[in-house]
Write a structure and sequence with these properties.
The protein is of the alpha+beta class and 217 residues long. The protein has helices spanning 2-25, 43-51, 179-182, 213-216; strands at residues 35-38, 58-64, 71-80, 83-94, 99-108, 112-119, 124-131, 142-146, 151-152, 159-167, 192-201. The chain has one domain.
Length: 217
């Protein structure tokens, strides 16, 4: 597990550096929109992911801001029958630039292990969320997910980055990601749910979790 974690950090660090170098060089148009959206990978970026077997398990998001946001927070929520069971840790990172990227990788096996990295101009923050819930052993659940669409960023307003829904009825209705934040009662339709959320804040982060690339390598 430790070797896989290090491999993820190294490869996503290289990928995010490659992605972000191109983003930062682009003209800073519409930065007042404050938005987050899925990244359209180039062929070389897709090839790099395929090389290490990450192409079908990783998602990358771009975010653009007007520079007013000083930190980002990411955490994992677990629900049962629509009720929050627990928050699993919180990743907090300062923002040193108006643009950046977020990478989310999920190993969907006996445990849903999450690896999250945030890349801005000069730094990378990374954290792992491990899910060893007993219900994951039950293979009869129908598992559904959804993808992030372009979403506006507002100060300290939680956004859903990724979701997994587990249902025993055999069919699962999936709504837009932000519907689960705006209308949390819809989570009552599922037996269990994982929601990975993020929040941008105009306040400074007091708990940076940063990875030194040279040290990881």
């Amino acid at each position: 597990m430790k070797k896989l974690t290090v491999l993820f950090l190294v490869m996503t660090s290289l990928l995010l550096i490659s992605c972000n170098d191109k983003s930062i060089q682009e003209t800073d148009l519409n930065l007042n929109e404050n938005k987050i959206y899925p990244r359209e990978l180039t062929q070389s970026e897709e090839d790099l992911l395929s090389l290490v077997g990450f192409n079908d398990t990783i998602e990358i998001f771009d975010f653009e801001t007007d520079g007013s946001f000083k930190s980002i927070h990411i955490w994992l929520e677990v629900y049962k029958d629509g009720k929050l069971l627990e928050d699993r840790g919180k990743m907090s990172s300062s923002l040193d630039y108006e643009k950046g990227l977020i990478a989310v990788k999920v190993n969907k096996n006996e445990t849903y292990d999450w690896r999250v990295s945030v890349k801005t101009k000069e730094q990378i923050s990374s954290m792992a969320f491990e899910s060893k819930d007993d219900f994951l052993k039950d293979k009869s659940y129908t598992v559904a997910s959804s993808y992030l669409e372009e979403t506006l960023i507002e100060n300290e307003k939680p956004l859903v980055l990724k979701i997994f829904l587990f249902d025993s009825d055999g069919s699962t209705t999936v709504y837009g990601l932000q519907s689960y934040e705006k209308n949390p009662e819809v989570l009552e339709e599922y037996d269990y749910a994982y929601l990975l959320k993020c929040e941008f804040s105009e306040s400074e982060s007091s708990d940076n979790q940063l990875e030194d690339l040279e040290e990881v390598q």
